[in-house]
Design brief:
Layout: E1 2-8, H1 14-22, E2 39-45, E3 48-54, H2 66-77, E4 82-88, H3 92-105, E5 109-114, H4 126-133, E6 136-140, H5 145-163, H6 198-206, H7 210-215, H8 225-243, H9 257-260, H10 266-282, H11 284-313, H12 318-335, H13 338-354, H14 356-369, H15 376-383, H16 388-393, H17 401-410, H18 420-431, H19 435-459, E7 469-471, H20 481-515, H21 534-546, H22 554-562, H23 568-578, H24 584-590, E8 593-594, E9 597-598, H25 604-616, H26 621-631, H27 633-664, H28 667-690, E10 704-706
Parallel strand pairs: 1-3, 1-4, 4-5, 5-6
Antiparallel strand pairs: 2-3, 7-10, 8-9
Helix pairs in contact: 3-6, 3-8, 4-8, 10-11, 10-13, 11-12, 11-13, 12-20, 12-23, 13-20, 14-15, 14-28, 18-24, 18-25, 20-23, 21-22, 22-23, 25-27, 26-27
Length: about 700
């Protein structure tokens, strides 16, 4: 088996190439942390087995970040036959710095130059580049299947040369660094494979790399970091000067940035873009598609199957009740939201592909810096709008441990796609056309609460260290249709898998608990009075806790408990309690009552309080389990307690405030107040962003670095 490691800078198309080579569907994106740990797949090519390992995107082999630590540990401690180093054809100067570090390690290397942009910055003589660097170079377009065949051919060619004793040439600039003076230090400590990575260790000691110095138990400082960087970049300039034409344009430069990154316009534009995406997703286009899907599900699947079940088992059978209520009513009510969930992921994917998401991190860096976070947190928090479980994983790339913990704790406050059906059903029942303002307000509330909680953590138990934030803007790019639809397919598949497994199983459990007594006597679904079912009995015990929040219906409380497994179950539970089978519109109309009783004291203030509580209370079990693994059980428990307390306090405040508004001047006043608050927050955020913002400028192959 040939063991191959895939490595490159962020934004070079590394994961796209991995997917093409291994026929996989891993997530790709234009930011740090998309690949947070190594992932591997074995495939066959021309009767040879190849194990391809996709390592996190890094800029260098200095263990200054989580990704770099993962990458260095893998290269030093695993059996790696060769490395595939991915570079962007339009950003070779920046990318080749990592290439030189790999050459210094002495691991056989293939340089894959990926043409991401249709119009490269300059023309490159790849034959000359291969000769100057002393390694194999292949030029491909990662979107083209022919590219993967070229890379596989190079892998087999290099592997045969390795077996025949091929030794890769060392970089010529090493002679300028006088590495031999470090040989005496290499005998210290108990480090494996010192001879194999001798030059790498010697250079890292010269650079005062803390991880490597710790391995050899060295306290002495050598102070040669700038000298080593100078020698490397001088060599890169010399190589590119001989094999590249004159640059036609600057990498990442765009006239759009003068508008999108304008200190006054950046934040309002971002809010408008997100608001437009939400409007199309949740109302106009998304609502139309959901209505069409509900109609098809009812007429083509649900009704025929129900008639068949009644004909086989009889209308009074508990099996028919289970199928009608738990499967058709519960699962069907969630499936109707599939188009809107798909649209949400489509717009997030569009922001990723375009290169705009990286700029968003730049916009928010100063704002988040005030509350102890960095621009990297933006990636995690924005992904939280899709799925909190996968978003938490991207927090691994935080340089500071406390920032990582804070980012993980804040992610559940983001309104994930699973919560949207709750807003749509309950908000649609009580607010009608004004529900768009309610939904946007809930999303904004989650962000505001997350920022406030970060500030509290920063000033109390989780103070962050000073962090550097290095950001490289990728060029603006047109959406890749194939990749976008691949992302949509994966998210739709994950949604359907979730509906067909977790949500279906939970619906069956809820149906059993709401249709059987503690002695397991079937009550035939008649749970309007007497409190005979297990779920109603349990719900009545807990309901007084929530009475100050404006809702104490046992059905609503029971739905909250079921929602701990998956937030969508809250909607399907309400559907089951009300016997709804005809889709989301019928569910909206029925949610004024829960199991035959008024759901929210007949008050829109109560439903607003309930929606806020659903937004802020405990995350689903899957997210909680990932948090326990990533930040530890101690911080998970602290986070869960904090989330319940915050949810309770904020819901109480919203309920009392909304009641006062209702009695004073109606909902028009509330909308006016909310609008003024949003404008005020935006002005405050803009002022904070302006203060201390580093001047944005376009410079070839340079990043905006702030400390």
């Amino acid at each position: 088996m040939i063991n191959v490691a895939l490595l490159g800078n962020p934004n070079t198309g590394k994961t796209t190439i991995y997917n093409s080579l291994t026929i996989s569907h891993e997530h790709v994106g234009n930011w740090h942390g998309v690949t947070v740990e190594e992932r591997a797949k074995i495939y066959k090519y021309k009767n040879e087995e190849i194990k391809m390992v996709d390592l996190p995107g890094v800029y260098s082999l200095s263990a200054l970040s989580y990704e770099e630590g993962v990458t260095i540990d893998y290269l030093l401690n695993r059996n790696v036959d060769m490395v595939i180093n991915i570079c962007d054809a339009s950003n070779l100067k920046r990318n080749l710095y990592l290439t030189l570090s790999l050459l210094e390690m002495g691991i056989p290397c293939i340089l894959v130059v990926n043409q991401i942009d249709k119009r490269p910055i300059c023309k490159i003589d790849f034959d000359k580049l291969e000769k100057l660097l002393g390694l194999k170079v292949v030029y491909i377009n990662a979107q083209n299947k022919k590219g993967s065949l070229l890379v596989n051919d190079k892998i087999l060619e290099l592997y045969r040369e390795i077996k025949n004793g091929h030794v890769q040439a060392k970089p010529v600039y090493l002679r300028e660094l006088n590495l031999s003076k470090m040989d005496g230090y290499l005998n210290l400590g108990k480090v494996k494979k010192v001879d194999r990575f001798k030059d790498f260790y010697r250079i890292k000691l010269l650079e005062d790399d803390e991880k490597i110095k710790g391995m050899f138990d060295i306290k002495e400082s050598f102070g040669q970091l700038e000298r080593v960087a100078e020698v490397r970049y001088s060599y890169i300039d010399d190589v590119l000067g001989k094999c590249c034409g004159k640059n036609e344009r600057v990498y990442g430069q765009s006239k759009l940035d003068k508008i999108l990154l304008n200190r006054f316009l950046a934040l309002p534009i971002f809010i408008l873009i997100i608001a437009a995406a939400f409007y199309l997703t949740f109302f106009s286009l998304g609502a139309w598609l959901s209505d069409g899907l509900n109609f098809l599900l009812d007429k083509c699947i649900a009704s025929p199957l129900l008639r068949f079940m009644v004909g086989v088992f009889g209308e009074e059978s508990w099996i028919v009740s289970l199928f009608q209520v738990a499967i058709i009513g519960g699962v069907g009510s969630i499936l109707g939201f599939l188009p809107q969930v798909a649209l949400l992921f489509f717009f997030l994917s569009l922001l990723e592909d375009s290169g705009y998401l990286s700029r968003v991190a730049f916009v928010f860096e100063d704002i988040l810096g005030k509350v102890g976070l960095s621009g990297k947190s933006v990636y995690t928090l924005l992904m939280g709008f899709g799925c909190s479980t996968s978003a938490v994983l991207t927090a691994r790339n935080m340089d500071d441990k406390n920032s990582k913990i804070k980012t993980g704790l804040l992610t559940p406050y983001m309104s994930c796609s699973a919560k949207f059906p709750i807003y749509s059903v309950l908000g649609g029942a009580f607010f009608g056309a004004n529900n768009i303002f309610v939904i946007l307000g809930l999303y904004l509330l989650g962000v505001v609460i997350a920022i406030l909680m970060s500030y509290i953590y920063e000033k109390t138990i989780l103070k962050s260290k000073e962090q550097s934030f290095i950001l490289e803007f990728p060029p603006y790019r047109v959406m890749n249709v194939k990749r976008t639809f691949s992302v949509l397919f994966l998210n739709i598949k994950e949604f359907l898998t979730r509906v067909g497994s977790v949500i279906l199983a939970m619906n069956i459990i809820v149906w059993i608990l709401s249709n059987f007594t503690i002695t397991f006597r079937f009550v035939g679904g008649n749970i309007e009075g007497g409190g005979v079912s297990m779920l109603e009995t349990f719900g009545h015990i807990l309901s007084p806790i929530f009475k100050p929040l404006g809702f104490s219906s046992w059905g609503l409380v029971s739905a909250l408990i079921a929602g701990l497994v998956a937030k969508e179950v809250i909607v399907s539970s309400i559907a089951m309690f009300n016997g709804v089978q005809e889709g989301s519109m019928a569910l909206i109309g029925s949610s004024l009552m829960i199991a035959g009783s008024p759901a929210f004291f007949g008050s829109a203030s109560s439903v607003l309080s309930y929606l806020v509580f659903c937004l802020l209370y405990f995350p689903c079990i899957a997210t909680a389990s990932v948090l326990a693994k990533e930040i530890g059980r101690k911080w998970l428990i602290i986070g869960l307690i904090s989330e319940f307390i915050i949810a309770y306090i904020v819901s109480f405040m919203v309920y009392r405030f909304a009641l006062a508004v209702e009695s004073f001047g109606g909902w028009a006043v509330l909308i006016l107040i909310a609008t003024l608050v949003i404008i005020g927050l935006s002005i405050w955020a803009i002022k904070k962003a302006i203060k201390g913002r580093c001047a944005f400028s376009h410079r070839c192959n340079k990043s905006c670095k702030k400390r």
